[in-house]
Design a protein that fits this description.
Blueprint (H helix, E strand, L loop, with lengths): L2 H5 L5 H10 L4 H4 L6 H7 L14 H7 L3 E6 L4 E5 L1 H7 L8 H4 L1 H5 L3 H10 L3 E7 L5 E8 L11 E8 L1 H28 L11 E7 L9 E10 L2 E9 L3 H19 L5 H15 L5 E9 L4 E7 L4 E4 L5 E4 L3 E2 L12 E4 L4 E6 L11 H13 L5 H11 L10 E8 L4 H5 L2 E7 L5 H15 L4 H21 L4 E7 L3 E8 L19 H8 L2 E6 L5 E8 L5
Parallel strand pairs: 10-13
Antiparallel strand pairs: 1-2, 1-5, 3-4, 4-5, 6-16, 7-8, 8-9, 9-10, 10-14, 11-12, 11-15, 15-16, 17-18, 18-19, 19-21, 20-21
Length: 551
Amino acid sequence: MNFTRWSARLPGTQRRAAARTEHAVTPDRRGEGSVPAARAEQLTDEAPPMPAVDELPAREVLDRVPALVALVHGPDHRIAYVNDAYAAAFGERPLGEPAREALPELAELGLLPLLDQVLRSGKPRTLKSRKAPDGRSYTFTCTPAAAHGDRDGGGAVLVFATDVTDHAEAAERLRASERRQRETAVTLQRSLLPQELEQPDDLRIAATYQPGGTEAAVGGDWYDVITLGGGRTALVIGDVMGRGVRAAAVMGQLRTAVRAYARLDLPPHEVLQLLDGLATEIDANQIATCVYAIHDPNEGRLVYASAGHLPILVRDENGTVLRADEPTGPPLGTGGWMHASGSVPLGPGSTAVLYTDGLVERRNEDLDEGIASLERALAGATGTPQVICDRLVRSAGVTADHDDDVAVLILQHPARTGSDGELFRNAALELLGGVEAAPRARAFASGVLTSWRFPTDLHDLGVLATSELVANSLQHGTPPMRLRLRRTDRRLIVEVTDGDDHLPRRRRAEPGDESGRGIAIVATIASNWGSRRTPGGGKAVWCEFVLPRAT
């Protein structure tokens, strides 16, 4: 093959040749006051003209460039030329042989189909940063190098490879560093989430957390389930704005604080007030959204407070979905806002969903549309909480390469019937005061516990705890007073409410004291005890006994 003829057809050669023809000076115009070239050179101090690029021998240039250059011709891509750099990288190649046999490195890199495309389309193609058999990385550019009317047929392609090994290695080091940072954040995030969800007596619960894809840094999504005692359960979900280890660390601090504040058994809006102040102290520039909710099986409602978070969705036993979007305050960390509590029905057969924005927010979709889609998916979702959770995540299109973190918390208040329903009982008595109130409460508790077929020792402990709690309420409380006994499949709960909001505390009674031993006795005989203020004013004091497991 005549390399000189092919070099004349390299990209830009014909265009530059045409430009020289257009700007050539005609003989007629040379006589119109023009100065002969020789005289012009003598009268000026300019440097002698340098040879144009088009005058340089193409082969000599290509032989000396550090990039790898090969020229192939025809549909079989027969080798017409390889420069010294190419030979140094891959060895000498016989001219005239097909590329499939003579250039195996191109076949391994998948360049042969690219050469076919260049021949067919007449347009250049580029293959970026491919690792060659010699261990180095190259970016290959394939350019058509044949002119129209090529008599040899088939056309030619110039293969130009630039060594980008340093750049590729630097990029790989950067990706490896990002992977390590992301793995650290994911590990921290997962370690701060509950390793095992608490399972309350009256609720069935499932949750999931999925970090964003490999290109997205981990966020600060979290959830938690906290048993408050007395049959009540706190449920939390939140989202710290931002990405990476910092967001995960802030999330861990907030989650720990929520568990501590929950032990105070405060109303949801008061818990958020405390969290708001803490978030400001942790980082004034870091904000977070959060929902804190409390479920009381005796009330059949979910009482909640929201700090800028997405609304809770509740599906009742008939499949109707309710969106609990009021009241909602600003996110945590903004300060200066008094949060308020709201409530939504959560009776037997109902399912509630708490979630973060990664489940419903999409870049090209309005947020309300995402929530509406979740409502439709929840309306048709049945089964266990875990089945519902998985179905909602799938319906939202969450995959391994999702661009945001996703946290979902499902709680289900099952409708119990038959033998299962026999394990969940309630009994209540209004206490009218007077000297007969305590004996009447003991007789009521004894009869109820006998009807529930508790063993003798548990029966006696329950009656004793009832007596002490009622006596404490009669002495220190105010009407209205009420005794409530509740059993689940796991425990017996005794609770007394009255109209006074002073919470009792356990104290050491001196030998000569005639009072002060009631709460100490209850704390000694019961598995757990506590007290809280009730929303309408007053307090509730409770204790619980763990039931023996059936053998």
